[in-house]
Structures are given as C-alpha cells and as structure tokens.
Protein 1
Amino acid sequence: MLNTKLHYRFWVGISIILILYAVIKNFMIDPHMEGFLQHKTGFKQEFNLTVWLNVMYIHIAFACIAMAAGLYNFM
C-alpha cells in the first residue's frame, strides 16, 4: 500500500511540474513564441501570427487539462 501511494505522489509531482513548466514558459516567459518561431524557416506563404498564437494557446491549455485529467483518472 505504501509503495502505491509513493508512486502516485511521484507522478502527481511530475505532472504538476510539467503543467507549471508549460504554463510559465508559454504564457509568461515567451508569450509570443519568439524562441520557437526562430527555428521555423522556409515558410511557403505568410501566416497570421495572431491567429497562430491563439491556436497555440488553446493547444497548450488543452494539453495541460488533458494531463491533469489523466492524473485524476488514476485517483
């Protein structure tokens, strides 16, 4: 029983760290994804940065929700 609780607490800690990292990195430190976009080259056409950022924010938010929901599934 103790071993199971220890494993669960370990995964709770890892999940919280990953969720906080994603939120802090993408919404506070680099909200315009400049670091990510610097690596993207060779665009065939121009894209709308505002729309792309909104889609990316939604993608990150749902990824964090999915990680929390997956963790809740094992309670």
Protein 2
Amino acid sequence: MAILARVLCKAIGVHARTAVDWARGLLLFVATLASTAVLAAPFAYVPRPYNDDLAIIDVATNQVVKFLPVGDFPQGVAISPTGDFIYIMNFSGHSISVVSGATHTVVATIELEGMPSSGAVSPDGKKLYVTQWHKTYPLLVIDTVTRKVVASYAGETTGSGVAVSPDGAFVYYASETHRRLSKIDTQTLKLVAKAVTGELPEGVTVTPDGNQVYVATWEGKGATLFDNVTNTAQQITTGQFPWSPAASPDGSAVWVANALDNTISIISTATHKVVQTIPTGKKPMSVAFTPDGKFAYVVNEDDHSVQAIKVASLLTVATVPIGANGFAFGRFIIQGKPHGPIYIETVSPLKRAPDLNAMTAGSAVDLRFSLGGDQGLGVLAAGSPTSEQIVCPTAIPMGTPDLPRSTATPGRLRYDAQTGVYAYAWATDPSWSRTCRRLALELTDGTRQELLMQFR
C-alpha cells in the first residue's frame, strides 16, 4: 500500500514508489474601526519524511528559513485559517506535531493510537480532522484548543486524504484500500453520501464554492470528481500515479501532480477536462497555491526540491532545494493574510445605521458584506453576529421593501469568489414582530459594524 511502502522503504534506506444582481449595489459605507495588525507573508511547510523534519520556506524569497525536527516519518500538513498553527501528521510516530506559525517551533505533540496520514482544519479553526490508519476509526476530530480527540468516526479504514467544505458543514475523507470517498456531516458525524473512486485514492481537495470534490487516484491514473450537489461521481484521466490534488483559489482549476510522468495535469472545473499538462521536476508528489493564486508550488520528491510556477504563464520561476526527499500531503502553504487594515463594507440592499432595514420576523436574510477580498471563512468573532432589542427610532416608511429572504442554511458564512462578497444567513424569531433590534457584526480582530433591523 502506498503509505506503508514509503515507511518500509525508509527503514531499508531506499525511495518509495520508484516503480449578478446582489453585486450591482454600490458600497454604502466603510466602518471606521479597522484591524491594526500587519501580518507576515505566507510560508510553505514541506515535511521531509526520511529526515523526520520540516522544511520551512518563505515564499516571498523562495528560501528555506529553517529545518524543524518533528516526529517520525512526517507527511500530512494542515494549517489553521489564521496561520497561527501548523499541524504535521507523523505517520510512523503515531502523533501530530503542533507548530507555532509565529515562532516556527513545536509547541505541542498530540499522541494517537493510529497512524495519521492527513489533516484539515475547519474554517473557524476550532476543529482538526485527521485521517489515520486504524482498525476501527479512520477519521478523528480534534479540538484545537484542548488538543484532545473529541470524536471519532467508525468507517472504512486506511484513511488517505481529508478536506473540509468551505462552510464547514461537511468533511470528506478517502479510504485507500476501500476505494471510497465518504461525505460526513460535521455536526452529527454521520455519513451523508459515499462514492467509488479510482484505485488507491490519495488526497482530497474541495473547490472554493464547495460544489466539487476531487480525489487523486494513484493507481487509477486520474482523479475522481464528486459532485457535492448531486452526490454523484465521475472519473477524469490525468497521468500516471497522481497524488494530492489542489484547487486554485479562484475555483477555476484543479491541479494534479502525476508522479511517474513528471507532470502536472490542470483540470478545468467548468468542463471537467484536462486543459493543460505542464512539466515538473522528478516525481512531483504535492501541489499548493499561494493565497492570491498567482503561484503554485510543487514538491518534487526525487529532485529534493520545491518548484515555484507562475500560474499566469505556467513557467517555473524558482526552484528551492530542500536537501532531501520532500512529501507534503495536503495544503502546505499557509493561508494568506492581508497587510494593513481590514474594513467591513456592506453591500446593497443592506443599509448601515442609522437607516433601518425592514424584514419579516421569523424569516432569514443574508447579511452581505465585503472585506476587500477573500480573508477565509474564520473571520467572524465567536458568537457573532449578535442582536439586542431596542426602541424603534422611527416608523418604516410606507412602501419600504423587505430585505430578500435567504434560502441558505442559517448560521453559516459563505464567500463568493466572483463578487468578493461574504454572506451570513441570519435567522430571526417570529416573536420579534413589531419590534426593532440592533445587530452587531464583529470580526476576530475586533472590527465591528452595527445594523438596525425593524420587523413587520
């Protein structure tokens, strides 16, 4: 089996795998409170399994800044949305190394019974989902605050890839030996759907809109596309020995590394066809994008290097030597963070205070706002938005239309990459009829905006 072969080869000293209308409104205001934090540029975190350490690369300079010792045979990588912590799955070590994004030191170790292969962090940063080789529980849920396992899923074993939907509602994991992709409800940890994949699925990625899930299939010579709307699957042929796919930040493409062919297959998410094949170094195993989508980084295992490709031209712009076999299972580039202040901007027809927004009590509406780009889905402060009843400042003018009702699931934040607009489906109570409320929308950095709501 793929992962087991790599461990055995490490033991004997040889390489493994040798053989729209919402957007029409103008921005009505800019909040006066802004974040003052200026955060660091992204880093790439590439495990070196045979060295039991982690190569940390500054993608601004394309230089290795540190080799950090972790656990035994590290391979999986998961990064919190804020970049505060990086989680390294130590397959042979039965553990997870927790690395500080600020200091690049190991700050904790999470011990496990099974052999962890891959991980993914929920959009709010509160949960770490881990696939492992275990006789009973292939999927674990870890609380990122206590760093304890809080739930486990008993399903098809030999977990070999995991991803979380952008809204945090579902987690997807692949089973290497069972050729299955399982779709799990994160609230109930119950199976929602499953699909047959190609031979030896290795790695899962979800498009930014959450509608498509791709699974690389090492011996299936391609990728399995799972439609998250219809819960159906189809096979897409790429190259030989594909591994660890990555969806582009704009959602237009999925890149798949073909290890035996020394190529990357670029799949269009619109046509579900390979539209381009580009050369790489020897034995590409993993690919990840910078947050702005301008560059893709490819881990070439047998070249002992990481290759930087400019997405616009598909040309290699840098090759970063890492001195040993690299292998990054999962998203290994830290989530991007903005430089300078963040502002909340509401989008029409939502109006800022002191203007009133009219709506029907008991309905749900989309609170639509912009943060100047994609800042991830973990932007809302805990418990936000909040509301409290107030004395109505004035009556709703005759003929004032209600805010359009939302058809989305209440309580979940979404992001539209095409319009750059966030939407939070806010549910209201029927008992609020003929009252007014002050609604506060607050971000994790303390930025706050208030809206006034009057209910019919």
Protein 3
Amino acid sequence: MWHGRPTIRCLVDNLDLELPGLDGDLGEIDHPLLEEVRRLAQSSPQGQKRVLAIDRPLV
C-alpha cells in the first residue's frame, strides 16, 4: 500500500482534521483528498524533490 504523508499544517489548517496519536500513521488517515494522493502515488516518478521555495510567485 502506498502512503501519502500530508504535513501537519495541511491536516490541521487545510483539511480541518485532528492529528492522530503518537503511534498513528499520517499516511493512513481516512479523507477523500488523501485517498486520491495514495492513488496517484503508485504511478508517480521516483526521486522527486520537495519544493522548498518559489522563486517567482505568480501575481
């Protein structure tokens, strides 16, 4: 099973979800958006890098 691991900020601020306990896995949270992330993760290319900053934001 593939996991989408959302950030705490995404869970709390964007999805209005409560954080699981310390032994909870963020990749197993039940939410329609996270289900889609897990579906897409299976076919996404490996070795992608996280975007840390946007040089030129869109205006």
Protein 4
Amino acid sequence: MAANRTRLAWLDALRGIAAPAVALHHSAWTFLPAVWAEVDRRVDVGTWGVFVFFLVSGYIIPASLERRGDLRAFWTGRAFRLLPLLLAALALALLLAYAGVFTTSPDLDRRPRPLVALANLTMLQELLGVPSVINVMWTLSYEMAFYLMTAGLYAVRQAHRSAPIAVVLAVAAVPLGLLMPGATINGGADVVAALMGVAVVLVIVVTVTANGRLRTAAAVIGGLLGLALVILGSRIGAGQGLVIAAVMFAGTAVWRAEQGTLRPVRAVAALLTVLVCGVLVADEPAWAAAVLLAAGFFALAFRLRHRPFPRWLAHLGVISFSLYLLHPLLLRVVPNLPVFFLVLLALGHVAYRLVEAPGQRLGRRLNAVRKNRVNSGRWPCGRRVRGGPAALMPVRRRGRVMSEEQEPHDPHRQGHEAGVEGSTKMTAAQLREALARVGKGEDTQSAKAEAESDR
C-alpha cells in the first residue's frame, strides 16, 4: 500500500476520517434512522468529527499565519481556500432547493435577504443568529471567530500565549454556560447582526489594506469581535461556544509544544483543563463523550505523526472540505447509503480538482506577486528604497562586503525568506528545486517535501 510520508500527512489523515464521519452521521439518520438512534444515544459521531476538525484547525492555522508572517497573506490565503467552494456549494444548494430536492431552513425566508447573504458569505451566520443555507456551515462560524482571534493576538505579539488563553476560555465557559444558555444575538436582532457582520468585513479589509498601527488596531478589534460573537451569538450557549474556541487554542498549544516554544506539560495541562470544562458544560452525555473521544483520537494521531499514512486516507483529508460541505446536498438525491458515499467521493474529488485547487493556486500566486513587489523595493535589511534592487549599493554583512548580484543567490537565505522551514538542513540543489516549486504556486511545505524526495 502506498504511503504518504510528508510531515503533515497525519493531519490529512485525521481530516480524511473526520469528514466521512460527519457525512455518516447525517446520512445514517436519513437512511438508517432506527439503527443510528442507538448509536447516537451513546456517542454523537457528528460532534466527534467536527471536534477533530477544530483540533486540526487549532494546530495548523496559527502555524500557517506565523509561517507567512503576514496578515495580508494570511487572510488572502483563507479567502481563496474557503470562498470558491463555499460560493459553488451555496449556488448548488439554491439550485437543488429550487428543484425541490434540497430543503433549506424555513427561517431563511423570514429574514432580510441582504442579511442572509452577508451572514452566509462571511461564514458568521451561526454567531449572528441567521440560518445557514447548508446546515453544516455552523462550524465555519467558529472557525472564522478563531481566525479573527488568532490574527488579533498575532498583531500584538501575544500569539504564543495559546495555552493560558485555552485555559481562561475553558474556565470562563462554566459560569457563562449557566448564565447564558442561549444566544443573545438571535432571530430578533437583525440590526445588531448586520452591524456586527459589516464590522467584521471592515476590520478584515483594513487589516489587509492598511499598514502600521491602523492595521494592528483593526486586527485587535477583529479579535475582540470574534470573542464577542462566540459569547453572545452561540446558539448552543456561551459555555459550549467558549469550549469550542478553547479546543482550538488547545490544538495551537500542542503545535507550540511540538515546535519547542512551549513546555509539553503545559500543553497537556491546557488540553486536560479544556476537556474537564467541556464535560461540565455539556448538555448531554453523547456531546461530552464526543469531545473526549475526539481529543483522544487527535492525541493518538499526534503520537503516530512520524509514521507513514496510506495515500488514499491522506487524499480524503485533502478533499475533506468538499466532502464536508457538499454531503448534505446529496441526502435527498441518492437512494441509499452505499450509493450516497460513492457519489459523495466522486463529487468531492471533482469539486477539489475544479474549484478548491484552482482557488488555492490563485491565492498563492497573488501572495507571491505581492511579496515580489514588496521585496523588489527593499534593502536586504527590509527598508524600502526608490528604484528597487537595481538601486542597491554593496552592503556589509558579517565583516565582508557583498554586492547585490551576489546576495540574492544564497539559496539558504532565499529559502529562509520564502518561508521554507528547515532550509538550513537542505542541500543547495534541494533548496533550488523547492524554491522553483514555490515560484510555480506550490505551498512551501509541499515544495520542500517534493524536493527532498526527488533528490
């Protein structure tokens, strides 16, 4: 059996199991309701799957931001990662609803259409009290809130505090869960929902387009808005909403422990605190069991992360967003469970190849173009100069003079600037190969893995 040995294959494998688990949860309720009722009474498989996703996001999203070191590139990457498939899925959902083979929430027609569009396109509908066009989109709202909080912390250089933040959020969830069992921003707060949605759009736009203190202020405001939305807008209550946020920050703590920037015992303590508080705020045993099992499964995969995983499983992880977002659209289209999964796998593969992958490549190209434009007008030390590199005088580095023609050809320095982790351990030939792949639009980690394997 072919195996995937890339550094993050274990995360793809996790997603490759979590997405079909969520699809199984919804499809089994459709095709085998009596059997699945007995399973669901003991453990909520759908909740288990989404909490695996939350842990994976907590682990990888801050790593992606800090690897880029650029809030503009981060938000551009997120937009081109999520929006192409989201737009395609929403269009398909509305088309199927018009044909009578997909059912949307009846509350959609009772809310102002501009608000419905704003909430669903920003993926904040769950926290703005607006129905989702596709029911599984509720998890994307918590992901967006996490992105906002992560970007805000990064802007003020506090992103390293993921473990204490996870603990604070989890501990606060217990009393707030009792005080705020439902959403404050609900179906009757259209004006508040619209203002919050517009505010989030504005802070992201300012973060991407502005510089200096204005960009920092916008990112911080965005982080505060994300936290406020989780507390005030969680339909499942502030307690469980804060536990979801805490789970993602606990995933970040695990990543920092692996990187050596956080003591492992602190990461473990943070995760255990989150799990205890998650059990305390759970409104039913199946929800608590799902959270605990998701953490245990994540810990097992983390333990095995250096081992090879089957390529087919990693591929399921690559197309997991398509599997997750599109599977509700098939529930009234296919006749039974086996056919459902066969059609879903084919649809997920096609959606990834035709929608997701081109969108991601376009996002990487836009980031690469912007980075090249910025670098073309800077000194090697990072200051902008008129005339770009052609205007550079020879610079002194470590006691010797180096001309501008010599400086850029150090492959290890180029690898460091391009964000290729571990570039100092690669040969010059491997680095050149990796940099060539990055220039064609590949992400740095895939380019590094392919360059090392090719040589």
